[in-house]
Structures are given as C-alpha cells and as structure tokens.
From TrEMBL:
GO terms for biological process: glycolytic process. Pathway: Carbohydrate degradation; glycolysis; D-glyceraldehyde 3-phosphate and glycerone phosphate from D-glucose: step 4/4. One of its GO terms (molecular function) is fructose-bisphosphate aldolase activity. It catalyses: beta-D-fructose 1,6-bisphosphate = D-glyceraldehyde 3-phosphate + dihydroxyacetone phosphate. Belongs to the class I fructose-bisphosphate aldolase family. InterPro entries: Aldolase_I_AS, Aldolase_TIM, FBA_I. The keyword Lyase applies. Keywords: Glycolysis, Lyase. The keyword NAD does not apply. This is Fructose-bisphosphate aldolase. Its EC number is 4.1.2.13. It comes from Candidatus Gallionella acididurans.
Length: 342
C-alpha cells in the first residue's frame, strides 16, 4: 500500500470548494429514475445520460471526482472514446461503486445488508487498471420500531471496514458510506442517536481492520428528521445537529466528509451544507463537502428527458446545481443563486 498516494488522492477529492458527483446508480435505479420521466430504459440511454454529464463544459470547476457504475466505466461514446477517458481528460478523478447492492437481511425484517465482498480484491484490481482512483460502498440503516438492530449496525460496519481495507491494498481511496435512511417518522434527536451509534461502530471497525484514516473519505447522511415526522426542523437546526454528531464520532485524521443527499431537494441539500460551512468551517478538523447524486442530477435529467435537443439546457442545469454546492462549501450559497441561475 502506498500510503502517501492514498492520502494525496483523498486530499484532492475534498480540496478547495469542490465535491464529488455520484453517477453510480445501478441499472435498476437508473431505470427507475428514467421510467419516472418517460425515458426509455436501455443501455444506450444510460450511456447518453452519463455522456451528457461527463461532457458538461466547466463541470470540473466544481466537481473533483465522479463515482461511476460498472456498466458506465466500460462504456464508450460513438467515436469509441471510453467514458472514463472523457472524465479524466476533463480534470475529474474517476471512482467506482463496488458494492453489489443492499439485500434483505436474514432474520431481521425491515433491515438490509450490503453484499459484494466475495471476489472484491480481483474487481478492485481490474478497476484500478482501468483508471479508477477511488471506490464507494454503501451500507443502509433503516430507522423504525425496534430497528436498527445491533446485528445490522455491526455487520454493516464490518463490511464497510473490510471493503475499505481491500481498497487501500489496491491503491484506491475508499469512500465509506453508511446511510441512515430518511424514511419514517423519527425525530431529529432519534436520527442523531442512531447516526452517532452507526459512525462509532464504523470507525471502531475501520480501526480493527487496520484502515488508514488519512486515506478515507466518509460519505454520511445528514442528521435529519424522518420524512413523515410532523415537526420540521430549520436548516440551522439540521446543520447544528449534523456537525455536533460528526464531531463526536469522526476522528480528526479523516481528511473529508462528503454528504449524500438521500432524496432531499437540491435546494435543501445545498442550504444545509451551506449552513454547516458558514457556521462551523473554521473550527472543523475535516472538510465538509458533497457527494450528491439526485441533488445534482435531478433537474438536469428532467430537462433532458432523453432528447438530444435538450442536452445543452440539461448541462446548464447540472452545472448550476454543481455551482450551488461549490458555493455551499464556501458558506456562500443563498436562495438568490436559485433565482438568478448563477
Ligand atoms: C444514497 O445514494 C447515494 C447518493 O445519492 P443521493 O445523493 O441521490 O442520495 C448514491 O451514490 C447511491 O449509492 C447510488 O446512486 C447507487 O444506488 P444503487 O441503489 O443503484 O446502488
């Protein structure tokens, strides 16, 4: 393991005011998003969408790294150029999602366990050869009556740590993503408690498995009330709770935290990230960045709707959301940015 190389990549991914773009939806998830907009669900349309993203002029001003999916990293455009080359040439570091998805957990109704450790060493070697410099694995934690169970938290944390150790062995920076889901009627306080417990378990397992924290990026969910919770917390309350939780559970050796959006609107995700950086940035040991999928892609995909004629307008919308999040990293995002499309 070349520790310095891992540390360098991790640092670059969260440097300055940039963040990550998650474009790693598996085919079923990508197809689900397309279906909602009447876009044909084919390999060709998925390629066209990913190419639209990768060729967005100026995207690298805001995006340091892009997380790809197995199908995407192997795709080429009509001229035969591999998509990973288009991304690298644009100045964006390519990464790859390597988990095999979350499946029902045996003996634990309502909970999921992420699969994909079998054969992972070989797959990481292949992705590294192809040019990937970092990887991503998502664990899913649901909140509800009697859940999450200790079994789900500990097994998810251990899988994340075993994945991270294999990544570092292969020279890839592991993005460690424990997502506490927004579904449910839980309060902000309940989400705080669970998120802290999950993060403590994850960092305990990373330590046990010998993972070098300086070469890791954490991709957590923000601390949020459940979607069905009647009490709506303010942007500032969410920012305060999220930062307080992270300060309790995330070691200072970690270079950066890049949030997932989890289904929040693009505007709310930017506003909440902005509030965290505005209120706390100068006092935090790690960078607070973003690794959004829906909160960057959604408006652009709606505009595109599978039509060539809409590519340019969709790219402008994509760049707009990326710029909003770059501003949020500086604590300079405001609702006015949405009005002007600046
Ligand atoms: C939580 O999802 C991740 C971040 O996306 P959002 O910002 O939209 O929440 C995302 O990287 C996710 O892991 C991928 O889209 C892959 O999902 P699937 O379920 O297709 O593996």
């Amino acid at each position: 393991m070349n520790e310095q190389a891992l540390m360098d990549i991790a640092k670059v991914l969260v440097a300055g005011d940039k963040g990550l773009l998650a474009m790693d939806e598996s085919n079923p998830t990508c197809n689900k998003r397309f279906a909602g907009l009447g876009i044909p669900q084919t390999e060709k349309t998925r390629q066209a969408w990913r190419e639209l993203i990768a060729t967005t002029p100026g995207l690298a001003e805001c995006i340091s790294g892009a997380i790809l999916y197995d199908e995407t990293i192997r795709q080429r455009n009509k001229q035969g150029t591999p998509l990973i080359k288009t991304i690298t040439d644009a100045g964006i570091i390519p990464g790859i999602k390597v988990d095999a998805g979350a499946k029902d957990m045996a003996g634990h109704p309502g909970e999921k366990m992420t699969e994909g450790l079998d054969g992972l060493r070989d797959r990481l070697g292949e992705y590294s050869q192809m040019g990937a410099r970092f990887a991503k694995w998502r664990a899913v934690i649901a909140l509800g009556e009697g859940i999450p169970s200790r079994a789900c938290i500990e097994a998810s944390a251990q899988a994340l740590a075993r994945y991270a150790a294999l990544c570092q062995e292969a020279g890839l920076v592991p993005v460690v993503e424990p997502e506490v889901l927004m579904e449910g009627d839980h309060t902000l306080a309940q989400c705080f408690e669970t998120t802290e417990e999950v993060l403590r378990a994850v960092f305990r397992q990373l330590y046990i498995q010998g993972v070098m924290l300086e070469g890791v990026i954490l991709k957590p969910s923000m601390v949020l009330q459940g979607l069905a919770c009647p009490k709506l917390e303010t942007v500032e309350e969410v920012a305060d709770a999220t930062v307080k939780c992270l300060l309790r559970a995330v070691p200072a050796a970690v270079p950066g935290i890049a949030f997932l959006s989890g289904g929040q609107s693009g505007e709310l995700a930017s506003a909440r990230l902005n509030a965290m950086n505005l209120r706390f940035k100068s006092r935090l040991p790690w960078a607070l960045a973003f690794s959004f999928a829906r909160a960057i892609q959604r408006p652009a995909m709606e505009i595109w709707s599978g039509r060539d004629a809409n590519v340019e307008a969709a790219q402008q919308a994509l760049l707009h959301r990326a710029r909003c999040n770059r501003a949020a990293r500086r604590g300079e995002y405001s609702a006015a940015m949405e009005a002007t499309g600046a």
